[in-house]
Amino acid sequence: MDAQLKRGLLDVCVLAAIKSEDSYGYKIIKDVSPFLELSESTLYTILKRLEEARMLEVRSVEYAGRLRKYYHITNVGLERIESFKEEWKEIMLVYSFICKEER
Fold it and tell me: What is the pTM of this model?
């Protein structure tokens, strides 16, 4: 898969993984991995980028004697998911055009 396309998909997948409930790194990887390969180092780069873009917020909670970071989606993050859905409709139209001769 093209690296730029995968990057965009991973960003939205991470947002989708925390859309319904706050989550932490390992759980996000576990939730996304059935759909796209996601390493720990890649995840934390994405989380930092999404935090800087104000698409998510971070809070630390003590768990088993150490701090665990939990990520919460913001309204900006929710808007990004919605804009992705609209963009995807356009992509599917182009895909249909490209594949129409194969039918």
Answer: 0.86
